[in-house]
Amino acid sequence: MADLQDKVAIITGAGSGIGRSAARLFADHGAKVIASDVTDAVDETASGSDGNIIAIKADAGSEGDVEMLVEAAEQRFGDLHVFFANAGIGGGFEGIFDSSVAEWQEVLRVNLIGPFLAAKYAGKVIAESGHGGSIICTASVAGIRSGAGGPAYSASKAGVINLVKVAAQQFATSNVRCNAICPGITETGMTQFIYDKAREKGKEDRLGYLNPLRRGAGPIEMAEVALFLASDRSSYVNGQAIAVDGGLSASHPVTRQEFGRTAV
Fold it and tell me: Which UniProt keywords apply (predicted)?
């Protein structure tokens, strides 16, 4: 239980869902955590952590706020090893012809500019420290293929996938690794309305039914992958976008191959 012993991590979007699960999991594994969110819900994430999680309200898409988070980690804990750029917003499901420029700008600001700022400010500090570390970004299966999100959201997450690949090359020789997690359907604040609606109709079992595991994920399942990428156990994993989707993106969900037969 000491995967992150004596390491310092910043996690954005930590007010609920994947970010909250990750903050508590990292702390359980020995890390000192700056948990950040744009809402006051982040205070609950830090409650009962005995000072191992410090809550800071901040906007992950604001350059000044991200710079402040990095400075806070150095001032409070004296170092920085990990930045988990997890904060994101969904945007609408309107088609391209019906989407507004303002919507696209806001989705890209939070979902793509936010991870860029994490790489820019945290990456520099970690690289200069000499001890190396990890930048982790939450992308999505929507960034791998179309159909899992609205146009702006999908484009922003595709950008995150390419960002970690570019950043991994930019940080060559610094021992700063950059990777992305691409969640499939996961119960978070962003998807809660989908889960609530499915439960009301008695169709919760339909969530995730297109993947081989035939279910959706819990946020802790994404947090566990983030823990791996944050730890030294993933020391040779770099520039990768890891799909954590029950196998959804491993095939085209038009037909299913099941025990020697094709199910349509």
Answer: Oxidoreductase
3-state secondary structure labels for all residues of 48-109: CCCCCEEEEECCCCCHHHHHHHHHHHHHHHCCCCEEEECCCCCCCCCCHHHCCHHHHHHHHH
List the beta strands (DSSP E) in 139-186: 176-183
Neighbours of 46 (CB within 10 A): 22
Coil, strand or helix: which one is 1? coil
Rounded to whole angstroms, how far apart are CA atoms 7 and 130?
Answer: 14
Write the CA distances from 161 to 22, 116, 138, integer angstroms.
20, 11, 9
Please give the angle made by the CA atoms of 164, 220 and 66, to the nearest 5 degrees: 45
What is the Cα–Cα distance from 108 to 102, expressed in whole angstroms? 10
* Greatest mean pLDDT among 114-123, 185-194, 214-223: 114-123
If 0-12 CB within 10 Å is exposed, 13-18 middle and 19+ buried, where does residue 120 land?
Answer: middle
Q: What is Dmax (Cα atoms) for the chain?
A: 60
Answer yes or no: are the C-beta atoms of 167 and 227 closer than 8 Å.
no
Residue with tokens 């029950």: 246
Fold of 8-244: Rossmann fold (3.40.50)
Residues that are catalytic: 153
pTM for the complete prediction? 0.91
Please report, rounded to a whole number, the percentage of residues in the chain having pLDDT higher than 90. Answer: 71
